Amino acid sequence: MKKFALIILILNFEFLIFNSNASSVDSYAWSDICAGRVEPASWYGSQEAQDIADIVLAVQKNNGGWMKNDQLHKLSDTYYQRLISEKNTHSCLDNFATTQEMRYLARVWKATGIAKYQTAFGYALYMIFAAQKACGGWSQYWPLSGNYSYQDYITFNDDLMTNVMRMMRDIYENQGIFADITDASTRTQCRNAFDRALQCVLDCQVNDNGVLAAWCAQHDTLAPFYPMEGRPHELPSISGYESANLLSFLMTIENPSEELKYSISSAVEWLDTHKIENKAVEDYTNAQQQPDRRIVDSEGTHLWGRFIQIGGKSGTTIYEHFFAKLKKRNTSRSYTYNGVTYSYKEEEIARASYDPANAYQPIYAIYKDTLQHMYYRFLYNYEDTPKAIDAKGCPVYTSLMATNRASYQYIGSWPQRVIETEYPIWKAKYETHTEGIYTLSAKTYVSSQSNIFHFNNAISMANDGNKGFASGERNSIKYSADVTYTIHIPYDLQVTSAEIRGYDNYREVDSYLSLWNDVAYSENTYRFPAKNDDEAQWKTYTIDMTAAPAQDALNFKISGKQTCLVIDLTCTRRDQQAIDPVPRNPLPVTRKILRNGQVIFVRDNKAYTILGQTIY
Protein backbone atom coordinates (compact mmCIF):
# COMPACT_ATOMS: atom_id res chain seq x y z
CA MET A 1 0.00 0.00 0.00
CA LYS A 2 2.79 2.38 0.89
CA LYS A 3 4.59 1.49 -2.33
CA PHE A 4 1.43 2.26 -4.36
CA ALA A 5 1.00 5.57 -2.54
CA LEU A 6 4.60 6.48 -3.32
CA ILE A 7 4.05 5.79 -7.03
CA ILE A 8 0.94 8.00 -6.99
CA LEU A 9 2.94 10.73 -5.26
CA ILE A 10 5.72 10.53 -7.86
CA LEU A 11 3.22 10.61 -10.71
CA ASN A 12 1.45 13.60 -9.17
CA PHE A 13 4.80 15.34 -8.72
CA GLU A 14 5.71 14.74 -12.39
CA PHE A 15 2.24 15.97 -13.41
CA LEU A 16 2.78 19.17 -11.46
CA ILE A 17 6.16 19.71 -13.11
CA PHE A 18 4.66 19.12 -16.56
CA ASN A 19 1.80 21.52 -15.91
CA SER A 20 4.14 24.12 -14.46
CA ASN A 21 6.29 24.01 -17.62
CA ALA A 22 3.19 24.00 -19.84
CA SER A 23 1.91 27.11 -18.12
CA SER A 24 5.21 28.92 -18.71
CA VAL A 25 5.33 27.80 -22.37
CA ASP A 26 1.76 29.01 -22.84
CA SER A 27 3.01 32.51 -22.13
CA TYR A 28 5.20 32.39 -25.28
CA ALA A 29 4.01 33.16 -28.78
CA TRP A 30 4.33 30.24 -31.19
CA SER A 31 6.81 32.25 -33.26
CA ASP A 32 9.06 32.66 -30.19
CA ILE A 33 8.97 28.94 -29.44
CA CYS A 34 9.89 28.11 -33.03
CA ALA A 35 12.69 30.69 -32.98
CA GLY A 36 14.32 29.04 -29.95
CA ARG A 37 13.49 31.70 -27.39
CA VAL A 38 12.22 29.30 -24.69
CA GLU A 39 14.56 29.10 -21.70
CA PRO A 40 16.36 26.94 -20.87
CA ALA A 41 17.42 25.73 -24.31
CA SER A 42 17.34 22.15 -23.03
CA TRP A 43 13.53 22.42 -22.97
CA TYR A 44 13.48 21.43 -26.66
CA GLY A 45 14.52 17.94 -25.61
CA SER A 46 11.79 17.65 -22.96
CA GLN A 47 8.72 15.45 -23.12
CA GLU A 48 6.58 18.57 -23.33
CA ALA A 49 8.46 19.78 -26.40
CA GLN A 50 8.01 16.37 -28.00
CA ASP A 51 4.30 16.35 -27.19
CA ILE A 52 3.95 19.69 -28.98
CA ALA A 53 6.07 18.41 -31.87
CA ASP A 54 3.69 15.45 -32.16
CA ILE A 55 0.82 17.92 -32.55
CA VAL A 56 2.82 19.72 -35.25
CA LEU A 57 3.17 16.38 -37.06
CA ALA A 58 -0.51 15.54 -36.59
CA VAL A 59 -1.73 18.75 -38.25
CA GLN A 60 0.91 18.83 -41.01
CA LYS A 61 -0.82 19.23 -44.37
CA ASN A 62 -0.87 16.26 -46.71
CA ASN A 63 1.24 18.31 -49.15
CA GLY A 64 3.87 19.02 -46.50
CA GLY A 65 3.33 22.42 -44.89
CA TRP A 66 1.17 24.24 -42.37
CA MET A 67 -1.27 27.15 -42.27
CA LYS A 68 -0.42 30.60 -40.89
CA ASN A 69 -1.29 32.24 -37.58
CA ASP A 70 -1.96 29.00 -35.65
CA GLN A 71 -0.67 28.74 -32.09
CA LEU A 72 0.13 25.04 -32.25
CA HIS A 73 1.40 24.82 -28.67
CA LYS A 74 -1.98 25.69 -27.14
CA LEU A 75 -4.75 24.45 -29.40
CA SER A 76 -8.25 23.87 -28.10
CA ASP A 77 -9.72 20.44 -28.85
CA THR A 78 -12.17 22.04 -31.29
CA TYR A 79 -9.49 23.91 -33.19
CA TYR A 80 -7.22 20.87 -33.21
CA GLN A 81 -9.99 18.79 -34.82
CA ARG A 82 -10.55 21.57 -37.35
CA LEU A 83 -6.88 21.48 -38.37
CA ILE A 84 -7.05 17.69 -38.67
CA SER A 85 -10.06 18.05 -40.99
CA GLU A 86 -8.17 20.59 -43.13
CA LYS A 87 -5.06 18.50 -43.76
CA ASN A 88 -5.92 18.18 -47.43
CA THR A 89 -6.00 21.95 -48.06
CA HIS A 90 -3.11 24.07 -49.32
CA SER A 91 -0.01 24.91 -47.29
CA CYS A 92 1.07 28.48 -46.56
CA LEU A 93 4.41 30.33 -46.57
CA ASP A 94 2.99 33.71 -45.50
CA ASN A 95 3.57 35.16 -42.01
CA PHE A 96 6.44 32.70 -41.34
CA ALA A 97 4.09 29.74 -41.84
CA THR A 98 5.79 26.39 -42.56
CA THR A 99 9.32 27.79 -42.15
CA GLN A 100 8.75 28.38 -38.43
CA GLU A 101 7.27 24.91 -37.91
CA MET A 102 10.31 23.47 -39.70
CA ARG A 103 12.60 25.35 -37.34
CA TYR A 104 10.71 23.95 -34.37
CA LEU A 105 10.95 20.37 -35.63
CA ALA A 106 14.67 20.86 -36.30
CA ARG A 107 15.22 21.99 -32.72
CA VAL A 108 13.36 19.04 -31.25
CA TRP A 109 15.11 16.62 -33.60
CA LYS A 110 18.50 18.11 -32.72
CA ALA A 111 17.76 17.67 -29.01
CA THR A 112 16.22 14.17 -29.20
CA GLY A 113 17.45 12.51 -32.40
CA ILE A 114 13.94 11.11 -32.98
CA ALA A 115 13.64 10.25 -36.67
CA LYS A 116 9.96 11.16 -37.20
CA TYR A 117 10.69 14.85 -36.65
CA GLN A 118 13.49 14.76 -39.22
CA THR A 119 11.19 12.97 -41.66
CA ALA A 120 8.41 15.57 -41.26
CA PHE A 121 10.99 18.33 -41.72
CA GLY A 122 12.14 16.77 -44.99
CA TYR A 123 8.58 16.42 -46.22
CA ALA A 124 8.00 20.15 -45.65
CA LEU A 125 11.28 20.99 -47.37
CA TYR A 126 10.27 19.11 -50.50
CA MET A 127 6.98 21.00 -50.50
CA ILE A 128 9.01 24.22 -50.67
CA PHE A 129 11.04 22.82 -53.55
CA ALA A 130 7.81 21.96 -55.37
CA ALA A 131 6.30 25.38 -54.66
CA GLN A 132 9.22 27.33 -56.15
CA LYS A 133 8.20 28.89 -59.45
CA ALA A 134 10.13 28.59 -62.68
CA CYS A 135 11.18 32.23 -62.17
CA GLY A 136 12.65 31.39 -58.74
CA GLY A 137 10.02 33.00 -56.52
CA TRP A 138 7.44 31.71 -54.08
CA SER A 139 3.77 32.58 -53.54
CA GLN A 140 1.62 32.56 -50.43
CA TYR A 141 0.11 29.11 -50.90
CA TRP A 142 0.91 25.72 -52.37
CA PRO A 143 -0.85 24.49 -54.40
CA LEU A 144 -1.68 27.86 -55.95
CA SER A 145 -5.04 29.55 -55.46
CA GLY A 146 -5.66 30.32 -59.16
CA ASN A 147 -8.42 32.54 -60.59
CA TYR A 148 -6.19 35.63 -61.06
CA SER A 149 -5.56 35.76 -57.31
CA TYR A 150 -2.82 38.00 -55.94
CA GLN A 151 -1.92 35.04 -53.71
CA ASP A 152 -0.23 33.44 -56.73
CA TYR A 153 2.20 36.31 -57.37
CA ILE A 154 5.86 36.37 -56.38
CA THR A 155 5.39 37.53 -52.80
CA PHE A 156 7.70 39.83 -50.86
CA ASN A 157 4.79 40.91 -48.66
CA ASP A 158 5.36 40.23 -44.96
CA ASP A 159 8.89 39.06 -45.87
CA LEU A 160 7.77 35.77 -47.44
CA MET A 161 10.60 35.55 -49.99
CA THR A 162 13.11 36.67 -47.38
CA ASN A 163 12.01 34.04 -44.86
CA VAL A 164 12.12 31.17 -47.33
CA MET A 165 15.51 32.26 -48.71
CA ARG A 166 16.91 32.50 -45.20
CA MET A 167 15.66 28.97 -44.51
CA MET A 168 17.31 27.66 -47.69
CA ARG A 169 20.61 29.29 -46.75
CA ASP A 170 20.50 28.04 -43.17
CA ILE A 171 19.97 24.48 -44.38
CA TYR A 172 22.66 24.42 -47.06
CA GLU A 173 25.19 25.93 -44.65
CA ASN A 174 24.59 22.80 -42.51
CA GLN A 175 25.15 24.44 -39.16
CA GLY A 176 23.36 24.81 -35.83
CA ILE A 177 19.95 23.16 -35.61
CA PHE A 178 20.17 22.19 -39.30
CA ALA A 179 23.49 20.37 -39.09
CA ASP A 180 23.04 17.00 -40.84
CA ILE A 181 19.25 17.19 -40.80
CA THR A 182 19.46 16.62 -44.60
CA ASP A 183 21.99 14.87 -46.80
CA ALA A 184 24.50 16.56 -49.08
CA SER A 185 22.33 16.16 -52.16
CA THR A 186 19.39 17.91 -50.51
CA ARG A 187 21.66 20.69 -49.29
CA THR A 188 22.74 21.20 -52.89
CA GLN A 189 19.06 21.51 -53.84
CA CYS A 190 18.68 24.17 -51.15
CA ARG A 191 21.65 26.07 -52.53
CA ASN A 192 20.22 25.89 -56.05
CA ALA A 193 16.81 27.04 -54.80
CA PHE A 194 18.47 29.97 -53.00
CA ASP A 195 20.44 31.00 -56.09
CA ARG A 196 17.31 30.88 -58.26
CA ALA A 197 15.42 32.93 -55.69
CA LEU A 198 18.19 35.52 -55.55
CA GLN A 199 18.06 35.90 -59.31
CA CYS A 200 14.29 36.35 -59.00
CA VAL A 201 14.88 39.15 -56.50
CA LEU A 202 17.21 40.88 -58.96
CA ASP A 203 14.75 40.36 -61.81
CA CYS A 204 11.90 41.89 -59.81
CA GLN A 205 13.71 45.09 -58.84
CA VAL A 206 11.65 47.89 -60.36
CA ASN A 207 13.22 49.75 -63.26
CA ASP A 208 12.18 53.36 -62.64
CA ASN A 209 12.78 55.01 -66.01
CA GLY A 210 16.31 53.65 -66.37
CA VAL A 211 17.17 53.74 -62.65
CA LEU A 212 16.93 50.61 -60.51
CA ALA A 213 14.58 51.42 -57.64
CA ALA A 214 13.36 48.92 -55.03
CA TRP A 215 10.60 46.31 -54.85
CA CYS A 216 6.82 45.96 -54.64
CA ALA A 217 5.08 43.70 -52.15
CA GLN A 218 3.97 41.44 -55.02
CA HIS A 219 5.33 40.95 -58.53
CA ASP A 220 3.99 39.31 -61.65
CA THR A 221 5.45 35.85 -62.25
CA LEU A 222 6.35 36.56 -65.88
CA ALA A 223 9.02 38.89 -67.25
CA PRO A 224 9.32 41.81 -66.90
CA PHE A 225 7.94 40.97 -63.41
CA TYR A 226 5.73 44.04 -63.04
CA PRO A 227 4.74 45.29 -59.57
CA MET A 228 1.24 43.99 -58.86
CA GLU A 229 -1.66 44.56 -56.47
CA GLY A 230 -2.37 42.62 -53.28
CA ARG A 231 -5.59 43.05 -51.38
CA PRO A 232 -7.80 45.94 -52.57
CA HIS A 233 -5.86 48.47 -50.47
CA GLU A 234 -2.42 47.27 -51.62
CA LEU A 235 -1.75 48.88 -54.99
CA PRO A 236 1.10 48.31 -57.45
CA SER A 237 3.96 50.46 -56.23
CA ILE A 238 7.37 50.45 -54.65
CA SER A 239 7.12 49.31 -51.04
CA GLY A 240 9.06 51.11 -48.36
CA TYR A 241 8.42 48.35 -45.83
CA GLU A 242 9.13 45.20 -47.85
CA SER A 243 12.11 46.80 -49.59
CA ALA A 244 13.74 47.76 -46.29
CA ASN A 245 13.53 44.26 -44.84
CA LEU A 246 14.64 42.67 -48.08
CA LEU A 247 17.69 44.96 -48.24
CA SER A 248 18.63 44.05 -44.68
CA PHE A 249 18.68 40.41 -45.72
CA LEU A 250 20.51 40.97 -49.01
CA MET A 251 23.29 42.75 -47.15
CA THR A 252 23.95 39.57 -45.13
CA ILE A 253 24.91 37.62 -48.27
CA GLU A 254 28.65 37.01 -48.24
CA ASN A 255 30.80 37.82 -51.28
CA PRO A 256 28.01 39.51 -53.25
CA SER A 257 28.28 39.63 -57.02
CA GLU A 258 28.74 42.96 -58.78
CA GLU A 259 25.14 42.72 -59.90
CA LEU A 260 23.91 42.25 -56.33
CA LYS A 261 26.09 45.09 -55.05
CA TYR A 262 24.70 47.39 -57.70
CA SER A 263 21.18 46.26 -56.87
CA ILE A 264 21.62 47.04 -53.18
CA SER A 265 23.29 50.41 -53.75
CA SER A 266 20.68 51.46 -56.29
CA ALA A 267 17.77 50.53 -54.02
CA VAL A 268 19.27 52.38 -51.06
CA GLU A 269 19.92 55.46 -53.18
CA TRP A 270 16.40 55.39 -54.58
CA LEU A 271 14.80 55.06 -51.16
CA ASP A 272 17.02 57.79 -49.72
CA THR A 273 16.01 60.08 -52.57
CA HIS A 274 12.29 59.47 -52.02
CA LYS A 275 12.00 59.96 -48.27
CA ILE A 276 9.63 62.43 -46.62
CA GLU A 277 12.07 64.35 -44.49
CA ASN A 278 11.76 65.25 -40.82
CA LYS A 279 8.35 63.68 -40.27
CA ALA A 280 7.07 60.88 -38.04
CA VAL A 281 3.83 58.98 -37.44
CA GLU A 282 2.19 59.59 -34.07
CA ASP A 283 -0.52 57.50 -32.41
CA TYR A 284 -3.22 59.59 -30.75
CA THR A 285 -6.91 59.65 -29.84
CA ASN A 286 -8.90 61.86 -32.20
CA ALA A 287 -11.85 64.15 -31.45
CA GLN A 288 -14.26 61.22 -31.92
CA GLN A 289 -12.32 59.32 -29.23
CA GLN A 290 -11.02 56.82 -31.77
CA PRO A 291 -7.49 55.42 -31.93
CA ASP A 292 -5.84 57.26 -34.80
CA ARG A 293 -2.53 58.18 -36.38
CA ARG A 294 -1.22 61.44 -37.78
CA ILE A 295 1.96 62.80 -39.34
CA VAL A 296 3.94 65.21 -37.19
CA ASP A 297 7.19 67.15 -37.46
CA SER A 298 10.17 65.20 -36.14
CA GLU A 299 13.70 66.40 -36.77
CA GLY A 300 15.93 63.62 -38.04
CA THR A 301 13.12 61.11 -38.60
CA HIS A 302 11.97 60.36 -42.12
CA LEU A 303 8.99 58.56 -43.61
CA TRP A 304 8.28 56.39 -46.63
CA GLY A 305 5.02 55.14 -48.03
CA ARG A 306 4.20 51.47 -47.69
CA PHE A 307 3.10 51.98 -51.31
CA ILE A 308 4.93 54.62 -53.37
CA GLN A 309 3.45 55.44 -56.78
CA ILE A 310 5.77 54.95 -59.74
CA GLY A 311 6.04 57.74 -62.32
CA GLY A 312 7.12 58.55 -65.84
CA LYS A 313 7.00 56.05 -68.68
CA SER A 314 7.65 53.20 -66.27
CA GLY A 315 4.65 54.20 -64.18
CA THR A 316 2.40 54.46 -67.23
CA THR A 317 3.41 50.98 -68.37
CA ILE A 318 3.04 49.41 -64.93
CA TYR A 319 -0.37 50.89 -64.17
CA GLU A 320 -1.73 50.12 -67.62
CA HIS A 321 -0.69 46.51 -67.00
CA PHE A 322 -2.58 46.62 -63.68
CA PHE A 323 -5.70 48.10 -65.25
CA ALA A 324 -5.62 45.45 -67.98
CA LYS A 325 -5.49 42.74 -65.33
CA LEU A 326 -8.55 44.18 -63.58
CA LYS A 327 -10.35 44.48 -66.91
CA LYS A 328 -9.65 40.85 -67.71
CA ARG A 329 -10.93 39.77 -64.30
CA ASN A 330 -14.09 41.83 -64.99
CA THR A 331 -15.25 41.95 -61.36
CA SER A 332 -18.15 44.26 -60.46
CA ARG A 333 -18.50 46.18 -57.18
CA SER A 334 -21.58 47.98 -55.87
CA TYR A 335 -22.43 50.46 -53.15
CA THR A 336 -25.85 51.62 -51.99
CA TYR A 337 -26.28 55.18 -50.74
CA ASN A 338 -29.59 56.88 -49.91
CA GLY A 339 -31.48 54.06 -51.60
CA VAL A 340 -29.48 54.29 -54.83
CA THR A 341 -27.15 51.45 -55.82
CA TYR A 342 -24.05 52.42 -57.74
CA SER A 343 -22.24 49.74 -59.76
CA TYR A 344 -18.61 49.78 -60.87
CA LYS A 345 -16.04 47.57 -62.53
CA GLU A 346 -12.79 47.33 -60.58
CA GLU A 347 -10.87 48.61 -63.58
CA GLU A 348 -13.19 51.61 -63.75
CA ILE A 349 -12.54 52.46 -60.08
CA ALA A 350 -8.77 52.20 -60.39
CA ARG A 351 -8.40 53.99 -63.71
CA ALA A 352 -10.65 56.92 -62.74
CA SER A 353 -8.81 57.55 -59.46
CA TYR A 354 -5.22 57.08 -60.64
CA ASP A 355 -3.44 60.42 -61.08
CA PRO A 356 0.02 60.31 -62.72
CA ALA A 357 0.71 63.81 -61.41
CA ASN A 358 1.10 62.26 -57.95
CA ALA A 359 4.09 60.19 -58.99
CA TYR A 360 6.51 59.20 -56.20
CA GLN A 361 4.00 60.08 -53.49
CA PRO A 362 2.56 57.55 -51.01
CA ILE A 363 -0.69 56.03 -52.27
CA TYR A 364 -3.47 54.65 -50.09
CA ALA A 365 -6.69 52.70 -50.54
CA ILE A 366 -9.57 51.47 -48.39
CA TYR A 367 -10.46 47.81 -47.95
CA LYS A 368 -13.82 47.44 -46.23
CA ASP A 369 -16.64 45.09 -47.26
CA THR A 370 -19.28 47.79 -46.79
CA LEU A 371 -17.35 50.19 -49.05
CA GLN A 372 -16.64 48.08 -52.10
CA HIS A 373 -16.76 51.10 -54.38
CA MET A 374 -13.46 52.05 -52.73
CA TYR A 375 -11.68 48.83 -53.77
CA TYR A 376 -8.50 49.68 -55.75
CA ARG A 377 -9.36 53.40 -55.60
CA PHE A 378 -6.16 55.47 -55.50
CA LEU A 379 -6.12 57.88 -52.56
CA TYR A 380 -3.40 60.46 -52.01
CA ASN A 381 -4.36 61.91 -48.60
CA TYR A 382 -3.34 60.27 -45.34
CA GLU A 383 -5.27 62.53 -42.96
CA ASP A 384 -8.96 63.41 -43.27
CA THR A 385 -10.12 65.38 -46.30
CA PRO A 386 -13.74 65.96 -47.41
CA LYS A 387 -15.53 63.39 -49.54
CA ALA A 388 -15.99 64.06 -53.26
CA ILE A 389 -18.78 63.22 -55.68
CA ASP A 390 -17.63 60.92 -58.44
CA ALA A 391 -18.78 60.93 -62.09
CA LYS A 392 -21.80 58.77 -61.21
CA GLY A 393 -22.96 61.08 -58.44
CA CYS A 394 -21.81 58.82 -55.63
CA PRO A 395 -19.90 60.19 -52.62
CA VAL A 396 -16.41 58.70 -52.30
CA TYR A 397 -13.66 59.08 -49.73
CA THR A 398 -10.64 61.13 -50.73
CA SER A 399 -8.50 60.06 -47.76
CA LEU A 400 -8.06 57.24 -45.31
CA MET A 401 -10.34 56.94 -42.29
CA ALA A 402 -9.19 56.68 -38.69
CA THR A 403 -9.89 52.95 -38.63
CA ASN A 404 -7.68 52.45 -41.70
CA ARG A 405 -4.83 54.48 -40.27
CA ALA A 406 -4.97 52.77 -36.89
CA SER A 407 -5.17 49.20 -38.18
CA TYR A 408 -2.59 49.26 -41.00
CA GLN A 409 0.86 50.80 -41.39
CA TYR A 410 0.47 52.80 -44.61
CA ILE A 411 3.49 54.97 -43.85
CA GLY A 412 6.54 54.48 -41.68
CA SER A 413 10.28 54.97 -41.18
CA TRP A 414 11.29 51.39 -42.10
CA PRO A 415 14.18 52.17 -44.52
CA GLN A 416 15.85 54.70 -42.23
CA ARG A 417 17.75 52.08 -40.21
CA VAL A 418 18.90 50.43 -43.42
CA ILE A 419 20.07 53.67 -45.02
CA GLU A 420 21.74 55.26 -42.02
CA THR A 421 23.12 52.27 -40.11
CA GLU A 422 23.25 49.01 -42.06
CA TYR A 423 24.16 50.30 -45.51
CA PRO A 424 27.23 52.35 -44.48
CA ILE A 425 28.69 49.28 -42.73
CA TRP A 426 27.98 47.07 -45.73
CA LYS A 427 29.30 49.66 -48.18
CA ALA A 428 32.53 50.09 -46.26
CA LYS A 429 33.01 46.31 -46.45
CA TYR A 430 32.32 45.84 -50.15
CA GLU A 431 32.22 49.13 -52.03
CA THR A 432 35.83 50.22 -52.37
CA HIS A 433 37.39 50.93 -55.76
CA THR A 434 40.88 51.61 -56.99
CA GLU A 435 42.34 54.00 -59.53
CA GLY A 436 42.90 52.59 -62.99
CA ILE A 437 41.26 51.72 -66.28
CA TYR A 438 37.71 50.40 -66.23
CA THR A 439 36.85 48.66 -69.50
CA LEU A 440 33.31 48.41 -70.81
CA SER A 441 33.29 45.54 -73.29
CA ALA A 442 31.64 42.21 -74.00
CA LYS A 443 34.46 40.62 -72.01
CA THR A 444 33.76 42.63 -68.84
CA TYR A 445 29.96 42.47 -69.28
CA VAL A 446 28.25 40.42 -66.54
CA SER A 447 24.48 40.60 -66.99
CA SER A 448 21.50 42.78 -67.88
CA GLN A 449 18.40 43.89 -66.05
CA SER A 450 16.05 45.14 -68.74
CA ASN A 451 17.91 48.08 -70.31
CA ILE A 452 20.66 48.22 -67.67
CA PHE A 453 24.02 46.49 -68.32
CA HIS A 454 26.29 45.37 -65.47
CA PHE A 455 30.06 44.97 -65.77
CA ASN A 456 32.46 43.07 -63.53
CA ASN A 457 34.19 46.25 -62.37
CA ALA A 458 31.23 47.81 -60.50
CA ILE A 459 30.27 49.93 -63.51
CA SER A 460 26.72 49.80 -64.83
CA MET A 461 25.10 51.44 -67.84
CA ALA A 462 21.46 52.36 -68.55
CA ASN A 463 19.83 53.50 -71.78
CA ASP A 464 16.62 55.36 -72.59
CA GLY A 465 15.76 53.22 -75.61
CA ASN A 466 15.06 49.94 -73.79
CA LYS A 467 17.90 48.35 -75.76
CA GLY A 468 19.27 44.99 -74.73
CA PHE A 469 22.85 43.80 -74.76
CA ALA A 470 24.54 42.54 -77.95
CA SER A 471 28.20 42.07 -78.78
CA GLY A 472 30.23 42.86 -81.88
CA GLU A 473 33.74 42.08 -83.12
CA ARG A 474 36.75 42.04 -80.74
CA ASN A 475 34.59 42.05 -77.58
CA SER A 476 32.89 45.29 -78.59
CA ILE A 477 29.33 46.17 -77.56
CA LYS A 478 26.66 47.26 -80.03
CA TYR A 479 25.22 50.72 -79.33
CA SER A 480 22.08 51.83 -81.14
CA ALA A 481 21.95 55.20 -82.84
CA ASP A 482 20.08 58.10 -81.24
CA VAL A 483 19.80 56.34 -77.88
CA THR A 484 21.27 58.02 -74.82
CA TYR A 485 23.44 55.71 -72.71
CA THR A 486 24.35 56.65 -69.15
CA ILE A 487 27.37 55.15 -67.40
CA HIS A 488 26.97 55.01 -63.62
CA ILE A 489 30.33 55.66 -61.98
CA PRO A 490 31.17 54.26 -58.52
CA TYR A 491 30.70 56.93 -55.89
CA ASP A 492 34.40 57.18 -54.93
CA LEU A 493 35.75 57.46 -58.47
CA GLN A 494 35.84 60.07 -61.21
CA VAL A 495 36.55 59.66 -64.93
CA THR A 496 39.46 61.81 -66.12
CA SER A 497 39.82 60.44 -69.66
CA ALA A 498 38.32 57.90 -72.01
CA GLU A 499 39.61 55.86 -74.92
CA ILE A 500 36.84 54.89 -77.34
CA ARG A 501 37.61 52.39 -80.08
CA GLY A 502 35.11 50.85 -82.44
CA TYR A 503 33.46 50.78 -85.83
CA ASP A 504 30.24 51.61 -87.67
CA ASN A 505 28.29 48.37 -88.00
CA TYR A 506 26.63 49.36 -91.30
CA ARG A 507 27.71 50.23 -94.85
CA GLU A 508 25.22 52.97 -95.75
CA VAL A 509 26.37 55.96 -93.72
CA ASP A 510 29.09 57.03 -91.28
CA SER A 511 28.27 57.16 -87.58
CA TYR A 512 29.72 59.49 -84.98
CA LEU A 513 29.83 60.25 -81.28
CA SER A 514 27.32 63.09 -80.96
CA LEU A 515 27.26 63.43 -77.16
CA TRP A 516 29.79 62.74 -74.45
CA ASN A 517 29.39 63.86 -70.84
CA ASP A 518 26.76 66.48 -71.75
CA VAL A 519 28.96 67.94 -74.51
CA ALA A 520 27.58 67.78 -78.06
CA TYR A 521 29.90 67.02 -80.99
CA SER A 522 29.56 67.41 -84.75
CA GLU A 523 29.84 64.52 -87.18
CA ASN A 524 33.45 65.41 -87.96
CA THR A 525 34.93 65.19 -84.45
CA TYR A 526 34.65 61.54 -83.43
CA ARG A 527 33.60 59.84 -86.69
CA PHE A 528 33.34 56.09 -87.36
CA PRO A 529 33.39 55.35 -91.12
CA ALA A 530 30.83 53.01 -92.63
CA LYS A 531 31.91 49.47 -93.39
CA ASN A 532 33.94 48.95 -96.56
CA ASP A 533 31.89 46.11 -98.01
CA ASP A 534 31.66 43.97 -94.86
CA GLU A 535 34.97 45.01 -93.35
CA ALA A 536 34.86 47.05 -90.15
CA GLN A 537 36.74 50.39 -90.24
CA TRP A 538 38.09 50.64 -86.67
CA LYS A 539 38.82 54.05 -85.17
CA THR A 540 40.26 54.99 -81.79
CA TYR A 541 39.70 58.31 -80.03
CA THR A 542 40.87 59.67 -76.69
CA ILE A 543 38.85 62.27 -74.81
CA ASP A 544 40.71 64.22 -72.15
CA MET A 545 38.43 65.09 -69.21
CA THR A 546 40.97 66.20 -66.60
CA ALA A 547 39.60 69.75 -66.66
CA ALA A 548 36.10 68.55 -65.80
CA PRO A 549 36.10 64.94 -64.56
CA ALA A 550 32.81 63.03 -64.67
CA GLN A 551 31.41 61.98 -61.32
CA ASP A 552 28.38 59.81 -60.52
CA ALA A 553 27.20 59.55 -64.15
CA LEU A 554 28.48 60.05 -67.69
CA ASN A 555 26.18 60.08 -70.72
CA PHE A 556 26.89 59.54 -74.40
CA LYS A 557 25.07 59.07 -77.69
CA ILE A 558 25.91 57.71 -81.13
CA SER A 559 24.28 59.23 -84.21
CA GLY A 560 23.99 57.82 -87.69
CA LYS A 561 24.00 54.03 -87.42
CA GLN A 562 24.56 51.32 -84.82
CA THR A 563 28.19 51.41 -83.70
CA CYS A 564 30.26 48.76 -81.91
CA LEU A 565 32.54 50.13 -79.19
CA VAL A 566 35.01 49.18 -76.48
CA ILE A 567 35.29 51.98 -73.93
CA ASP A 568 38.21 52.35 -71.52
CA LEU A 569 37.56 54.78 -68.70
CA THR A 570 40.56 56.11 -66.79
CA CYS A 571 39.35 56.59 -63.22
CA THR A 572 40.99 58.30 -60.29
CA ARG A 573 39.89 58.63 -56.70
CA ARG A 574 37.63 61.55 -55.97
CA ASP A 575 38.84 64.24 -53.58
CA GLN A 576 38.24 62.64 -50.19
CA GLN A 577 37.70 66.08 -48.68
CA ALA A 578 34.87 66.64 -51.12
CA ILE A 579 32.90 63.49 -50.47
CA ASP A 580 31.74 61.51 -47.53
CA PRO A 581 33.41 58.06 -47.67
CA VAL A 582 29.98 56.63 -46.87
CA PRO A 583 27.66 59.12 -48.60
CA ARG A 584 24.19 59.63 -47.21
CA ASN A 585 22.81 60.72 -50.58
CA PRO A 586 24.75 59.08 -53.41
CA LEU A 587 22.32 60.56 -55.95
CA PRO A 588 22.58 64.38 -55.72
CA VAL A 589 18.84 64.91 -56.07
CA THR A 590 16.74 67.35 -54.10
CA ARG A 591 13.36 66.41 -55.49
CA LYS A 592 11.79 64.42 -58.27
CA ILE A 593 8.81 65.73 -60.25
CA LEU A 594 6.72 64.73 -63.24
CA ARG A 595 6.24 67.39 -65.92
CA ASN A 596 4.31 66.71 -69.12
CA GLY A 597 4.78 62.99 -68.58
CA GLN A 598 8.56 63.34 -68.14
CA VAL A 599 10.45 62.58 -64.91
CA ILE A 600 12.63 65.55 -63.93
CA PHE A 601 15.23 65.90 -61.15
CA VAL A 602 15.60 69.39 -59.67
CA ARG A 603 18.69 70.38 -57.69
CA ASP A 604 20.16 73.78 -56.94
CA ASN A 605 17.58 75.43 -59.22
CA LYS A 606 18.72 73.30 -62.15
CA ALA A 607 16.64 70.61 -63.84
CA TYR A 608 17.92 67.36 -65.34
CA THR A 609 16.38 64.41 -67.16
CA ILE A 610 16.60 60.95 -65.62
CA LEU A 611 19.72 60.43 -67.74
CA GLY A 612 21.48 63.53 -66.40
CA GLN A 613 20.86 65.84 -69.34
CA THR A 614 20.44 69.47 -68.39
CA ILE A 615 17.04 71.00 -69.16
CA TYR A 616 17.58 74.46 -67.69
Task: Tell me what you see in this structure.
- The protein is an alpha+beta fold and 616 residues long.
- It folds into three domains: 25-204, Glycosyltransferase, CATH 1.50.10; 216-431, no CATH class; 433-578, Galactose-binding domain-like (Jelly Rolls).
- Helices cover 31% and strands 22% of the residues.
- The protein is built from 14 helices and 31 strands.
- The strands form ten sheets. Strands 16, 17, 18, 20, 22, 23, 24 and 27 form an eight-stranded antiparallel beta sheet that branches. Strands 15, 19, 21, 25, 26 and 28 form a six-stranded antiparallel beta sheet that branches.
- Helix 9 (240-250) packs parallel to helix 14 and helix 10 runs antiparallel to helix 14.
- The longest helix has 25 residues, at 2-26.
- The protein is globular.
- It starts with a helix and ends in a 7-residue tail after the last strand.
- Residues 1-23 and 576-598 have low confidence and may be disordered.
